[in-house]
Amino acid sequence: MLSFQSFLNQEIFSVGSYTLKVHMVAMILVIIVGTRILLWIVKKMLFRKADIDEHKRGNVQAVYQIIRYVLWLGAFGLALETIGIKVTLLLAGSAALLVGIGLGLQQTFNDVISGVILLTERSIKIGDVLEIDSDVVKIQTIGIRTSKGLNTDDISIIIPNSLITTSKVINWSHQNDKTRFRIDVGVAYGSNVDDVIRILEESAFEHPEVYDRELTEGRLMGFGSSSLDFQLLFFSKNTFRIGSVKSDIRRNIVRKFAENNIVISFPQLDVHLKQSED
Q1: Please, where are the H alpha helices in 83-105?
Q2: What burial class does residue 221 get, using C-beta atoms within 10 Å of its C-beta: 0-12 exposed, 13-18 middle, 19+ buried?
Q3: Pairing verdict, β 146-151 and 135-142
Q4: Which of 55, 80, 143, 230 has the greatest number of beta carbons closer than 10 A?
Q5: Where is 259: in which H helix or E strand?
Q6: What is the distance between the alpha carbons of residues 200 and 197, in angstroms, rounded to a whole number?
Q7: Is the pLDDT reported for residue 186 higher than 60?
Q8: Burial of 230 (0-12, 13-18, 19+ CB in 10 A)
Q9: Is the pLDDT of residue 209 over 70?
Q10: 3-state SS of 2-40?
């Protein structure tokens, strides 16, 4: 027993009055292992329901991320105390240095604060479909500094959290699991308005991703310079791949217009030539 205690008290190295001993390193390892075990237990408790849906899983993941960062921060402070570094004195003594670092890493700190806001406020969750700067992205992870999303081309995008909190972001998944979309089309003057509306609605009905037949509506929106302007409104749950859905519906519209002799308009200009009198 004495030999083991003497082993723990052995010096690894010393610098001036500071000495690093074996038991300090052992305590750091215990702190790291203990933190990992505690996080594993917390994760198992939070995700104990196997049938949890995607939106609830995003909420639980946000809570787990907050707990994870807090535990690791506490473990880091405890490790510093274990090796004889007083955290309070370290922060007080390096106040000027921290100010300089803060100015240099202002954007990074902004991203970190934004990440804390996202994780605590939970206005955006994992699995949400967002439109950010005209890009449609499905959120996969929310980190403390950056979030990772998947765009419609199946390309992973790293998004600074400050971009989400400071920019105008459309969350297509925030309120409901279905979203209303629209398709605009213009037809030639002289076309039968009722036939056009019927064809627009039928073109949407034929697609399996259109949510509700009763909520699908074709409208005459106005009288353009070269066309009668119509709009097709429909709901779909496939918000992430809506570009493909719209493409299929447009193909149906083109086919049905051709079958019913309805012409999709294009800009036209009449030019009148005035003959000069000799």
Answers
A1: 87-93, 95-104
A2: middle
A3: antiparallel
A4: 230
A5: helix 242-259
A6: 5
A7: yes
A8: buried
A9: yes
A10: HHHHHHHCCEEEEECCEEEEHHHHHHHHHHHHHHHHHHH
- pLDDT, tens digit, 9 for 90 and up, residues 48-78: 764 555 556 666 776 777 788 788 888 888 8
pLDDT, tens digit (0-9, with 9 covering 90-100), for 233-249: 998 888 888 888 999 99
With b for 16 or more beta-carbon neighbours within 10 A and e for fewer, the 75-90 pattern comes to: beeebeebeeeeeeee
58 is written with which tokens? Answer: 């995003």
**What does the alpha-carbon distance between residue 196 and residue 1 come to, in Å, rounded to a whole number?**
92
User: With bands split at pLDDT 50, 70 and 90, how would you rate the model's confidence at 230?
Assistant: very high
Residue 235, phi then psi, degrees to nearest 5: -105, 145
In this structure, how many other beta carbons lie within 10 angstroms of the beta carbon of residue 12? 10
How would you label 14-38 residue by residue, b for 16+ Cβ within 10 Å and e otherwise? eeeeeeebeebeebbeebeeebeee
Q: How far is CA 178 from the centre of its chain?
A: 17
Query: Which of 77, 78, 47, 79 minimizes the C-alpha distance to 64?
Result: 47
159: left (phi over 0), alpha (psi -120 to 50) or beta: beta
pTM: 0.55
Cβ partners under 8 Å of residue 3, min gap 6: none
For residue 146, the cross-strand partners are 160
CA angle 239, 242, 248 (to 5 degrees): 150
Q: How far apart are CA 46 and CA 48, in angstroms?
A: 6
